[in-house]
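Hello Y.,

Per our agreement to keep a running log of every chain we model this quarter, I'm adding this entry. I've kept the format consistent with earlier entries: sequence first, then predicted structure.
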Amino acid sequence: MTKLTKEYRTDEQYQNIVENAYNGNWSDAMQNAYDGGFWAQDLINKHEEAENLGLETFKDATDLALIVEGTMKIRAQKGEL
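Predicted structure for the entry above:
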């Protein structure tokens, strides 16, 4: 029997975060970042990688900061900090 493991910090998860933020679904984007196990440096790395490859990503650092802040609030509410 094959054990299924959850994947964390994937390109697909990152793109879902970006798409939700772009569409104004900030709460969903923050929840996606939390569920995907993204921390600030992970989001920065994915953002820079996407920019270098010409892929869709956050328009500016403010969007990225809002996602990080919201994800940290989720972690704090769950007592993970």
